[in-house]
Amino acid sequence: MEQFVIKGGKPLYGTVRVQGAKNSALPILAAALLAGGVHEIRDVPRLSDIFVMGEILKALGVKVKKDGNTVGLETTTLKSSCIPEVLMRQMRSSIFLMGPLLSRLQEVSLTRPGGCDIGARPIDLHLKGLASLGATVEEKDGVIHCFARKLTGADIFLELPSVGATENIMMAAVRAEGTTVIRNAAREPEIVDLQRFLNRMGADVQGAGSRIIRIRGVKQLQPVSYEVIPDRIAAGTLVVATAMTGGEVLLTHVVKEHMESTLSLIEKTGAELRSEGDALWVRGPSQLQAVGNVVTKPYPGFPTDMQPQMMALLSLAKGENSIFESVFEGRFKHVQELIRMGADLSTVENRVEIRGVPQLMGHTVEATDLRAGAALVVAGLAASGTTLVKGLSHIDRGYEGLDTTLLQLGGQIQRCSSRVASG
Ligand SMILES: CC(=O)N[C@H]1[C@@H](OP(=O)(O)OP(=O)(O)OC[C@H]2O[C@@H](n3ccc(=O)[nH]c3=O)[C@H](O)[C@@H]2O)O[C@H](CO)[C@@H](O)[C@@H]1O
Ligand SMILES: C=C(OP(=O)(O)O)C(=O)O
């Protein structure tokens, strides 16, 4: 087992390029199945979730070729519509294969997806959406079998603006007969990126980024070469780390407009931010200030994927804050770990009250999910003494070489096997 050994208290300085977006790359790799031929997807971050997506695609018959951050897919050879359970369990994003397989092969068999333990994360909206397009959905002994000789456009209202359900329905609808309208659609930038990718392949999708998405079915799609957008959560995590350590960092490959809610909160803590083109300059304050109540919301609200990192930051802010988690009911597993590091936090249902402390202290802590892990790393960078962060498999799901990136910025972080670190 590996862990990070972090010697805290050193401000981050330097320039770093932000990775491509995990949450764009995963649905786009799945969407490539919609068109037979050779696709090239660029700026794909090297993450364990991307590796798993590659393994699933291979298991379905696709030829996958990786060269650095470029993934080549030969999808003509797609032959299976059955996703192995062992791979389904490894991540939530395995669910993205449903829409494309149903569209291309008229059927898909899979089990419920795995992923981070941050809540129940049902898939009812995905299944209802596909059923509205004419698919029959049957579940027996834990296996979901979904089939449709023909998919037909429909008017679909999502009870919640689910990111994954919006994307799955978009992918299933692009080759359906007629027009599909998704109402109360999620508006995340990654949905706009998926629309751009689908349209580049020849689809007719309009409205992503707004509450209503219209998809006019087309007969044929072509393979394409495409570059995914920058990762707004990876960028936000580095901004938080800079602000917490009182450092000064220039991030490149950033779309600032995708980060408005995160950046406006971080600015309120006293950090200075300036942007030009795709560059974002951050300087941390000598003392972080409280911002009041923070509530996670679907985009354009403050993202749940930044909540744990923001909690680490506010733990050091002068005054009192609270964070209300409105998206996932179980996304507070980092709270106990931050308390071990000296944070003054108390939880009441889905709200955490944060009373700022002058200093966090190094401790041995465990990442229980991806962003909880990111929060513990940024806390460790700012803390006095040494922090050991266990559970790196969670962090590696979403950050490409987080340790290498932080080392490049002068952070004192090392990836070690637990035996070496404790011996
Ligand atoms: C790969 C990817 O893009 N992952 C992101 C995506 O996850 P994901 O697409 O899984 O998240 P959703 O937007 O679907 O989930 C939002 C809420 O809807 C609920 N829900 C969802 C689907 C469903 O069928 N039924 C249902 O009740 C969920 O339990 C949750 O409470 O959006 C989340 C919310 O921004 C982010 O944290 C994840 O990083
Ligand atoms: C929860 C996350 O991702 P996923 O939906 O892939 O589990 C995340 O990126 O923080």
TrEMBL record:
Tell me the enzyme class: transferase
Enzyme Commission number(s) of this protein: 2.5.1.7
Q: Which reaction does it catalyse?
A: phosphoenolpyruvate + UDP-N-acetyl-alpha-D-glucosamine = UDP-N-acetyl-3-O-(1-carboxyvinyl)-alpha-D-glucosamine + phosphate
Q: Which residues bind phosphoenolpyruvate?
A: 22-23
Q: Does the keyword Cytoplasm apply?
A: yes
Q: What are the 2-(S-cysteinyl)pyruvic acid O-phosphothioketal sites (modified residues) in this protein?
A: 116
Q: Where does the record place the Enolpyruvate transferase domain?
A: 7-402
Kindly state which keywords UniProt assigns to this record, in alphabetical order.
Answer: Cell cycle, Cell division, Cell shape, Cell wall biogenesis/degradation, Cytoplasm, Peptidoglycan synthesis, Pyruvate, Transferase
Where does it sit, as one GO cellular component term?
cytoplasm
**Gene Ontology MF term list:** UDP-N-acetylglucosamine 1-carboxyvinyltransferase activity
Q: Tell me which InterPro entries the record gives.
A: Enolpyruvate_Tfrase_dom, Enolpyruvate_Tfrase_sf, MurA_subfamily, RNA3'P_cycl/enolpyr_Trfase_a/b, UDP_GlcNAc_COvinyl_MurA
Q: What does this protein do?
A: Cell wall formation. Adds enolpyruvyl to UDP-N-acetylglucosamine.
Protein family membership: Belongs to the EPSP synthase family. MurA subfamily.
Q: Per its record, how is this protein called by name?
A: UDP-N-acetylglucosamine 1-carboxyvinyltransferase
What taxonomic ancestry is recorded?
Answer: Bacteria, Bacillati, Bacillota, Bacilli, Bacillales
